[in-house]
Amino acid sequence: MKTWTCNVLPNLPERLAPLRKIAYNLWFSWSWEAVQLFMRLGREYWEASYQNPVRMLGMIPQEWYERACRDDSFLASMDRVDAAFEEYMQAKTWYAKTYPDRPGPIAYFSCEYGLDEGLPVYSGGLGMLAGDTLKSASDLGLPLCGVGLLYRQGYFRQYFNADGYQQEEYPENDWYTMPVGRVTDQAGEPVQITVQFDKETVVAQVWRVQVGRVSLYLLDANIPENPPHQREVTAQLYGGDRDMRIRQEILLGVGGLRALWAMGIEPAVCHMNEGHSAFLALERIAHLREQYGLGFPEARELVWASDVFTTHTPVPAGNERFDPALVEKYLKPYLPAVGIEWAEALALGRERPDDDQEPFCMTVLALRLAAHANAVSVLHGRTTRQMWHALWPDLPEEEVPICAVPNGIHTLGWLSHDLLDLFDRYLGPEFTEEPANFQVFERIDDIPDSELWRTHERRRERAVGFVRKRVVRQRRRAGAPPSALTQAEEALDPEALTIGFARRFATYKRGTLPFRDPDRLARILNDPERPVQMVFAGKSHPHDQAGKNLIREIVHWSRDPRFRGKILFVADYDIAVARYLIQGVDLWLNTPRRPQEASGTSGMKAALGGGLNMSTLDGWWDEAYAPEVGWAIGRREEYEDPNLQDDIESQALYNLLEQEVVPLFYARGRDGVPHDWVAKMKASMKRLGAYYNTNRMLSDYLECLYRPAMDRFDALRAENAAGARDLAAWRGRVRKAWPKVRIEEVQGPDSDLVVGASLDVRARVRLGALTPEDVTVQVYCGVMDSQGRLAGARAEPMQAGEAEDGAVGYRGSVTCERSGRFGYTVRVLPRHPQLCHPYLPGLLRWAE
After folding, report:
1. Are strands 214-220 and 845-846 parallel, antiparallel or unpaired?
2. In the chain, N or C terminus with fewer CB closer than 10 Å?
3. DSSP bridge pairs for 795
4. Is 95 helix (H, G, I), strand (E, B) or coil?
5. E strand segments, 422-537
6. Hey, how many other C-beta atoms are within 10 angstroms of the C-beta on 789?
7. CB-based contacts of 786: which residues, under 8 Å, 6+ apart?
8. Contact 637, 617 (CB under 8 A)
9. How far apart are the C-alpha atoms of 410 and 132, rounded to whole Å?
């Protein structure tokens, strides 16, 4: 049976037209006035639509619109919001003021985006970061666009059976009632692209989500042009088998780029947020080969110089890997356009290119084809350089070219409206009008303790009310008896010290660590003078049985008579749940097994909302912790025995609660305010809020990664890519000549030196067919540790002298800044003015 379709739109009166415009721009999600406007129009419909204004506008009865048209107060509010929106969209941005040349654009690729409750195309931290990145890019005015996939079902919705075991359901998303719209061409036809999956051509249409000034483009394969099994490619986030995952990642990387080109967008920089989109590097090479008439080596130089890669996974098993046969099935048809053979393509995704047993790794592919790579915290940077050291085997681990750009959060998107009112009064308009002015956080000290504390108490009351309602609903669904529903309605004390623990339930995050000694935990929670309570939330991957068991265990503990009413687990953790918890809890608990947490941003959100952090020193907390802003569980110890570690760190957790956290919270002044606790809140909000935000993060990306990548790309592609051709020819010449490069002699001082003296070093270097302009010769020096290794070493350049008998003499000196056993050596690296960095695999020579 053939059917025809048409769209039925809300019949908004012309006077209310601004409502539709605001509803279709995610700017509303970080504008409390816009949210209030929709709530005022119909609060019950706002809640029934799960805070999705597009859907809400289609639910409201027509007579309500007619009544709103007669409500002068509502119309005045709408006009104010509309004016604020237009002012935001038209204002000259920080980026336009700071960089009037305005290079770009930057294309940001991610498999998930956490932007708002009404757009469920996210699962957890990776998506939250991507969504906050787009919001800050809008605030700052960066020439950035996002690229992702439009999942028909998104990530799963979580509920519990009667035993507390996680169940999954996948409701269908109706894109025609969400803040997305199909992209059309000048003729009004949908923009579509094609990708090749083995022997089938798959079509994807492009949708746009407007995030303030920034566009997010999402690809959708669920269209009639595709056979049913290919329409499933965009069915679920992280769903399906390995075959489905590689097709999704080809669509994201290859199809995503083709969508940008189809819309006339030619990115100068491509940012891969994790390795899922790494196939885009090969597609860019193919495109640039055709555009400039290049070979693979020349096109690779252009791509390598202008790709940015962010890795989020600090354990090898968490990085995406595929069987070579599966990769060959889907990737091989693209290789003629890329200009390489299958063996070369396979080598790009392997740490050991000649190992036939090694799978193809998307992270390795990204690292080999992106000169600009970063981790997401300082500790994660060290862990990542250690993980991928094999790609640069001759390089000291600390010099592996992966820097650290610590994560952040979008401040306005996570700050409660109650606190925003306080900030407006005491921090001034700069807080919202100057997104790159981080000094404004210093004014948090001007907020009176009593005002900040009463505001936080209101947020805790709201969080308790929200949790009660959600738990009642989930227990009713699980078939709980009336007594359990009544118990949930009365659970938690809105005045008690409230601890939050909400995140993805993976085993390394140790969600059950607080229950290591349940009797001791019960004594802490049930102190009649100083009560404590805990709220848990989080999902486990559908295939992670160990994670599901952790959740079930906590649900069971919540039913234990000792913890009844004191511990609750909120099902279906999402943006809405996160907002209530991070804005309302007093203490945010995090217990990952060091060093397996890359960053973690939920603690940043809690800190901004006035909650204090208590965490093991892992991820962001390893660098952010100070006694003035929170508490640390342990002192950076790493254990071989996980059971011993859990025993020790659970006891440390209990000790902190008993001896420091609980007494500080309940030490009240005569005005009922815990002034010492509030002082800690202010220090946390001021110091952590000013740094751990995506405005600062993006300014770091811009200075350290984006602008250098833009500059290199522009230089290399100028004059029909003459720079890329020259650099590729130079690299080929150097690689061919490198086996003949060797350091023949090194001479240093023949007596002891004193602090402040110069360590003078001479070396004779044979360069073969290369010249001194092709290389950098360095003194590499540092203090020797107890095992004869250079610790904290640094490199200083040496100056070339005369050539004699085919070898070049070099001289260099280093100032001895401290006493002790000092070591030095000499090394040679390639040098070219257009190289992003000199750390090229296989091109490093040490003195022997």
Report:
1. unpaired
2. N
3. 780
4. helix
5. 497-502, 532-537
6. 12
7. none
8. no
9. 5
Beta strand residue intervals within 287-394, DSSP E: 307-310, 321-322, 360-361, 372-375
Angle between helices 296-306 and 362-369 (to 10 degrees): 100
| Pairwise CA distance, residues 193 & 218, whole Å | 12
Strands 612-616 and 630-633: parallel
Beta-sheet pairing, 106-109 with 269-273? parallel
Sort strands 790-797 and 845-846 into parallel, antiparallel or unpaired.
unpaired
Q: How far apart are CA 535 and CA 513, in angstroms?
A: 14
* 316, 341, 393 from 388: Cα distances, Å: 9, 25, 9
* Apex 698 CA angle, 445 and 692, nearest 5: 35
Which pair of tokens denotes residue 496? 């008690």
Cβ contacts of 187 within 8 Å, gap of 6 or more: none
Question: Tokens 């918890």 label which residue?
Answer: 581
Structure tokens at 691: 């740094």
Is residue 780 within 8 Å of 795, Cβ to Cβ?
A: yes
Say which amino acid occupies 5.
T
Q: What is the pTM of this model?
A: 0.96
Nearest residue to 760 via CA among 809, 831, 828: 809
Sequence letter at residue 365:
L
The Cα-based distances of 470 to 475, 537, 573 in angstroms read 9, 11, 11
Ramachandran region, residue 399 (left: φ > 0; alpha: ψ -120 to 50; beta: rest) = alpha
For the chain, what's the residue count?
A: 848
The answer to whether 366 and 275 have CB atoms below 8 angstroms apart is: yes
Is the separation of the CB atoms in 280 and 272 below 8 Å? yes
Q: Token pair 């252009």 is at which residue?
A: 302
Rounded distance between C-alpha atoms, residue 192 and residue 183, angstroms: 9
- Identity of the amino acid at 165: Y
Q: What are the tens digits of pLDDT across the range 21-58? A: 999 999 999 999 999 999 999 999 999 999 999 999 99
Query: Are 110 and 126 a contacting pair, CB within 8 Å?
Result: yes
Residue with tokens 């600090």, as numbered in its chain: 314
Count other Cβ atoms within 10 Å, centred on residue 105.
18
Both structure tokens of 159: 């509920």
* Phi and psi, residue 350, nearest 5°: -125, 140
Q: Phi first, then psi: give them for residue 512, nearest 5 degrees.
A: -95, 5
C-alpha to C-alpha distance for 704 and 510, rounded to whole angstroms? 35
Centre a 10 Å sphere on the Cβ of residue 537 and count the other Cβ atoms it contains. Answer: 24
Other beta carbons within 10 angstroms of residue 588's beta carbon come to 26
Cβ distance 552 to 163 under 8 Å? yes
Tens digits of residue pLDDT in 487-527:
999 999 999 999 999 999 999 999 999 999 999 999 999 99
The Cα angle at residue 207 between residues 206 and 210, in degrees rounded to 5: 140
Q: d(Cα 108, Cα 214) in Å, to the nearest integer?
A: 11
Which domains does the chain carry? Answer: 14-90 (no CATH), 101-156+167-407 (3.40.50.2000), 433-692 (3.40.50.2000), 741-846 (2.60.40)
Please check whether residue 656 is in contact with residue 631, taking contact to mean a CB–CB distance below 8 angstroms: yes
pLDDT tens track for 407-429: 999 999 999 999 999 999 999 99
Q: Where are the beta strands (DSSP E) in 191-316?
A: 192-197, 200-211, 214-220, 269-273, 307-310
CA distance 186 to 184: 7
Span 292-347, pLDDT tens digits: 999 999 999 999 999 999 999 998 878 999 999 999 999 999 999 999 999 999 99
Burial of 708-738, coded b for 16+ CB within 10 Å and e otherwise, reads bbbebbebbbeeebebbbbbbebbeebeeeb
The 3-class secondary structure across 609-671, one letter per residue, is: CCCEEEEECCCHHHHHCCCCCEEEECCCCCCCCHHHHHHHHHHHHHHHHHHHHHHHHHCCCCC
Q: Give the integer Cα–Cα distance in Å for 109 and 32.
A: 28
